[in-house]
Amino acid sequence: MSDIVIGGDLRVDRLGYGAMRLSGDPGIFTPPKDRASAVAVLRRAVELGVNFIDTADAYALGDNETLIAEALHPYRDGLVIATKGGNTRPSADEWVAVGHPAYIRQQAELSLRRLKTDRIDLYQIHRLDPNLPVADQIETVAALQQEGKIRHIGLSEVTVEQLKQAQEVAPIASVQNLYNLVTRQSEDVLDYTAEQGIAFIPWFPIAAGKHAGPDGPVAKIAAEAGATPAQTALAWLLRRSDNIVPIPGTSSIAHLEENWAARDIALSDAHYEALDDLA
Fold it and tell me: Which of 159, 185, 234, 276: CA 20 to 30 A from 73?
């Protein structure tokens, strides 16, 4: 298992933690029902060695960021907290991209306050606003970077063309797109980020779709590899490309520990190729 350097100076383990699942409902709209348990999961993650935690201002309307600070501030040296802005939550069922400069600035300031920090290590545009030019949205976060409020800029759910447009305005350190064993529409984005030295952060990394289940091919390969299906899915991602940083999320310490152990799973060539053929 190796680490990765994001943006040239953020050295993190290649398996991170996504805090989204610490919300209290499937819509990621409310605070956790058991706050003490959520705090315990975050603290256990850091105890295990997780040094990259991903959140967003849209998760539980900002409470997810507050929760991270409550559990982990003052932050341990080397712990990287990444957050996202630019996605509004009018209701539990809605996610609406807003890229207006004033809104992005406001949300970045609120994230700084909730996370109890004076600089965000990695600030990602959660979704590009389709009603505004890409360059205009990147200029806003680039200005925040110049002011010292953001260390590095990331994007989420973008195409290669959008990423290239963003790179014309400012250096992009990471891209966070949906990607897993069975959902690979971002294959071209992954390959481009690898060429560019940009970290690729797959969200929802453990999904196995129709191949899941006790009699499915993932379970069969997992048993042969001496691993669980979740560990096997993560091990495939970690081998797929050196720039991949999965961020599996869970509200369970047991599942957290299971996911973390995926770092020690070495897939054989045959197992890797069999998993690769599942898409």
Answer: 234
